Amino acid sequence: MNLREDAPSFDIKAFLETLTQLPGVYRMLDDKGEVIYVGKAKNLKKRVSSYFSGKDCSPKQQAMVARVCSIDVRVTHTEGEALLLESQLIKRHKPRYNINLRDDKSYPYIYVSTHQPFPRITFHRGAKSKLGRYFGPYPSASAVRESLKLLQKIFPVRQCQDSYFQNRSRPCLQYQIERCTAPCVDLIDRETYAQDVQDTVMFLEGNGKRLIDDLAGRMEKAAADLQFERAARYRDQIASLRTVLAKQAVHGEHGDIDIIACAIKGNVACVQMLFIRGGQQIGDRAYFPSMLEEHDPGSILAAFIPQFYLGKQVPREILISHPIEDAELVAEVLASQSGHAVQIAARLRGERQKRLQLALINAENALNAKLANRQDLYARFLSLGEALHCPEPPKRLECFDISHTQGDQTVASCVVFDRQGPVKSAYRRFNIEGVTPGDDYGALAQAVSRRYQRIKQGEIEAPDILFIDGGKGQVNAVREVLSELGMNSIRTVGVAKGPDRKPGMETLFPAGSSDAIILPSHSPALLLIQQIRDEAHRFAITGHRQRRAKARKQSTLDDIAGLGPKRRQQLLRQFGGLREISRAGVDALSSVEGISAQLAKRIYETFHERES
Q1: Range name among 4-13, 316-325, 510-519, 573-582 with the lowest pLDDT average
Q2: Is residue 331 within 8 Å of residue 272, measured between CB atoms?
Q3: Helix (H) or strand (E) holding 580
Q4: Predicted local distance difference test score (pLDDT) of residue 96
């Protein structure tokens, strides 16, 4: 039902009085009639009313509600129908305030034209309108092509176009390199070729072990019949199959499973998927959902899963890195769509938990690579210049941060970014001496003075913008130093953390201005500022820990919270020394008695500081 009005002001009170309590989907529209948000509800009246109650509304909700000029409502029979309709509408309208999966391409398959006398195996994307067998879907085109390449080495089934096949008068290069048996010129009989096709289909169906047993039987029979060349061919196929299966096999798994992990930095998220079909890993893929506001991982996965699986084949199990709201409802809807039971699980143990952790690490790496993308960086530099009203876009940035433990062993860091990303060769650390312990202003002043004396002498290139991790006090301390050096032209900006140190809520304090700047959480400029600030923080902490460990002349293990003498002794006994502990992964560390997964992670991070 369409409840949109032409009146300039939206009478929400009158609207809510007429609103039904049945399940359904609501669309919020702005003054131009554009859909800005789509949501589902078990009780439409209760859900929509919550946006306008004024209680515990987030800044995102307040900004969205302020733009609402009308609301469209569509009633459904069940909440499950509402979930499906919500996903369809989000894909269609791509609303500003929803999490959108930007994935317009259909998934690729491997196609076998089993209806032809000499079937062909090839890449396929789009509607499955042809006769034959389809295997997949695969996560990416590259995964399909890699599989085709492997299959061609093991089973010499043709992969050429039908037009090419029908017009050959002599064998092509694929025959010469033993990747095809040249059925185009009748160098192989139909029965033998059909066996190769059958073997290919059996492998694609996930019956690799049974196929090896069949090939072994054929090899023994060929040898008994003194057909040694054929026996050697079967032997080579078996060896190749064992190698492929060993690489793709997922220990302990036999069915179809998708593993989904989510990593977030600011309002940029990466969803990493690992696809397992028939106990074999067929590939993985990273997705970057579009969202203007910051969301928690559970909310992103809750939005991602229905949009991703709508209209696609669904595995029986979906393993996720963070619990989602209405997981049972989502599983029920996917089960209804796929025709079989679907389980969504977040709390895992053993090997599955390890695989999920690996997917999460890959998600974080893909996210970092995305943030460091050169094109994205250039756009962020342009956005930063506009946000700070620079005469021209900046080319070089510096950021300072301070790290200490209750004023002890203070270290200042300076990191440098240009339009290509971090310039690590220009990074510097400063051991702070002669400053009252805990005096961050004095520590910053000393570090900036030492750095900018060299810049003044022309030894180092000057930045266009100097960022300081802190507020007005830190900025004033730095400006005094720059004034003494006669370098007032350096634009200086303080970056103060928001409430609860939450990313996206930072306040900027430009030197010489009484007005603070608060950028939108989705601003490319703010993402760049967060990136350089976090890198300065990481670099400072790393230097402080190294200095602290050296000064105390103690084992690095002594500084890890929760690692007492007995556990330290147990670790050293198990690994034989600090060097071996520093090389161990989280799984190996947590295998030691008394070392939990969280403690193992702290130990690992002590020796391997993460890159921002």
Answers
A1: 4-13
A2: no
A3: helix 578-583
A4: 82
Q: Token pair of 31, please?
A: 């003054």
Q: Is the entire prediction scored with pTM above 0.70?
A: no
| Strand pairing category for 317-320 and 257-265 | parallel
Q: What is the DSSP letter of 91?
A: H
How does 449-476 read in b/e, with b if 16+ C-beta sit within 10 Å? bebbeebeeeebeebbbbbbbbbeebbb
- Residue-wise pLDDT tens digits, 231-278: 888 888 888 777 776 665 555 566 788 899 999 887 788 999 888 877
**b vs e for 128-137, b when ≥16 Cβ sit within 10 Å of the residue's Cβ?**
eeeebbebbb
Q: What are phi and psi of 53, to 5 degrees?
A: -80, -20
How many residues does this entry show for the chain? 612
Residue written as token pair 């690579």:
369
* Percent of the chain surpassing pLDDT 90: 18
Q: Which long-range contacts (CB under 8 A, 24 or more apart) does 51-54 make?
A: 52/12, 52/16
Q: Tell me the helix, strand and coil percentages in the chain, rounded to 5.
A: 45, 20, 35
Collapsing DSSP to helix, strand or coil, 285 comes out as strand
Tokens for 272?
């990493």
Which of 367, 316, 366, 362 lies closest to 343 in space, CA to CA? 316
Picking from 530, 468, 474, the residue whose alpha carbon sits closest to that of residue 502 is: 530
Name the residue with tokens 């989904």: 260
Between CA 401 and CA 397 the distance in angstroms is: 14
Residues 192-203 have pLDDT tens digits of 898 888 888 888
